[in-house]
Design a protein that fits this description.
- There is one protein chain.
- By secondary structure, this protein is of the alpha/beta class.
- The strands form four sheets. A seven-stranded mixed β-sheet has the order 3-2-1-4-18-17-16. A six-stranded parallel β-sheet has the order 6-14-7-8-10-9. Strands 11-12-13 form a three-stranded antiparallel β-sheet, with no helix packed on it.
- The longest helix has 20 residues.
- It is globular and about 70 Å long.
């Protein structure tokens, strides 16, 4: 048996790169370990913690954000430090961390979007839904974007929860949005929106849709919004019917869609149209801007493994639209000097243990967690079990290998100070958080977000 990995005199030093749910759940799991004592530094390139809970969860879903209370308790533990406004690969490098920590955990998520790969995708007015979500949530990288909302119809490609979120935000009344923490610039733009119809396109059928029951059902409860589902889209082949029998979520989604299709139109000013078995095959434009979407009707084809894929029938039609938001998945990006599986968009790993390539050998002392580990699947809570698996792997390695020699480098805060990095502590974040809430009180809102890094640092006196 190797020497005990960490003691109160010589704690195991662990760096977590990424302060989203996966990073915090990992820190929480590490703090529960009784085999060793650890000190944990959580880095993030933004001054604000919580990742997609702050920058991805829809502003009209405040209950989902309550998980930050658990993260705050983790960050308040004396063994944990938050170091925000620190970019991995720039202010600190992989070598910097390897020389200062016994173990490194990468929890950077999947910040990029997947493309459709069709003609016209880069026309003005065609956007990844990830950018739209980040824009209305006030992410500093996207706060300066401008979305043209002067058209009457928008098309959202995809039928997962993110697609539902963006469709819902586009049709919600500005009065409702004004009671949320939506970014001020987005609220102002949506107040002037002329969009009256949002068409959601799903390439497969209703049985294969990825949204949850709660998200789908909420669409049918939006004030002043009709939801239209075409009866012919709800016809199921034998394999799709079998999916419903084996998947309660899919079965309930289908029931909700049936209920929606049976509702008469109320003549509401705005509406959402859910289409299935329909794919965009081209975005058509004039003067460099999208004006319509060429769609193709699909049929489902069952492969040898039982997976049902969409196959085009050649039946096409044009759908006028001035805004197209593609919501076909997130994708991880490589980190400087860290192994990356470009085909899957993840850091290659085995149960969280980083490998030097897909199917390769383990990289000692380095781990991955969350979307950068498994791909962009699941909900916020999914990251808790995922983090537990990575921590189990880390603990197993410690038991076999021991902690190893003490890292030769000094405290990372000294390094950051020497490099002139204006890093943000968790205490700083609490002050910023309280200021946002105070700014919101005057407007009857949960908070008014700071959306520019310079403004955040100015408020903090950095």
């Amino acid at each position: 048996m190797s020497e005990r990995p960490g003691t109160s005199e010589r704690p195991l030093r662990i760096a977590i790169v990424g302060a989203g749910p996966a990073g915090f759940f990992t820190a929480g799991a590490l703090l529960k370990e009784t085999d060793f004592v650890c000190s944990i530094d959580i880095f993030d390139r933004l001054p604000t913690p919580y990742g997609l809970v702050r920058d991805g969860v829809a502003p009209d879903h405040p209950s989902i954000k309550k998980v930050t209370g658990k993260f705050e308790k983790i960050a308040s533990d004396p063994s944990v430090r938050f170091l925000g406004n620190v970019t991995f690969g720039e202010e600190v490098t992989r070598d910097d961390l390897k020389s200062r920590y016994h173990r490194i955990v990468y929890a950077v998520g999947a910040p990029a979007d997947r493309r459709l790969g069709i003609p016209g995708e880069d026309l003005a007015g065609s956007w990844p839904a990830t950018a739209f979500v980040a824009w209305y949530n006030g992410h500093p990288d996207f706060a300066g974007l401008e979305f043209d909302l002067s058209c009457e119809r928008a098309v959202v490609v995809g039928n997962g929860n993110v697609a539902v979120d963006v469709a819902r935000i586009l049709v919600r009344s500005s009065e409702e949005l004004a009671r949320t923490d939506i970014a001020d610039h987005a609220l102002a733009a949506l107040r002037g929106s002329r969009i009256r119809e949002v068409v959601m396109l799903g390439r497969r059928g209703p049985a294969q849709a990825k949204f949850t029951n709660v998200e789908l059902k909420e669409l049918g409860k939006l004030e002043g919004v009709d939801v239209e589902v075409v009866d012919s889209d709800l016809m199921l082949d034998a394999d799709s019917a079998a999916v419903l029998k084996s998947n309660r979520t899919a079965e309930r989604n289908y029931e909700i869609l049936r209920e929606m299709s049976a509702r008469p139109s109320s003549g509401a000013e705005r509406r959402i149209v859910l289409r299935f078995l329909t794919s965009p095959v081209e975005l058509v434009g004039e003067e460099g801007r999208v004006t319509c979407v060429r769609t193709e009707r699909n049929r489902l084809v069952t492969g040898p493994n039982g997976y049902q894929s969409a196959e085009g029938t050649g039946e096409c039609r044009l759908l006028d639209a001035g805004l197209v938001l593609r919501s076909v998945g997130y994708r991880g990006l490589p980190l400087p000097d860290v192994p990356f599986d470009d085909a899957r968009g993840v850091i290659p790993n085995l149960a969280g243990r980083v490998t030097d390539g897909p199917g390769g050998d383990p990289v000692p002392g380095e781990y991955a967690v969350g979307w950068i580990k498994r791909g962009p699947t699941g909900i916020i809570g999914t990251n808790k079990a995922d983090a537990a698996e990575t921590v189990r792997t880390l603990v197993e390695d410690l038991r076999v290998e021991g902690a190893g020699p003490a890292p030769p480098g000094g405290d990372v805060e000294e390094l950051l100070a020497a490099r002139g990095v204006r890093y943000v502590t968790f205490g700083d974040w609490i002050n910023l958080d309280e200021q946002e809430k105070r700014n919101g009180e005057a407007e009857g809102r949960p908070r008014v977000k700071f959306v520019r890094v310079d403004d955040m640092l100015r408020v903090l006196g950095k």
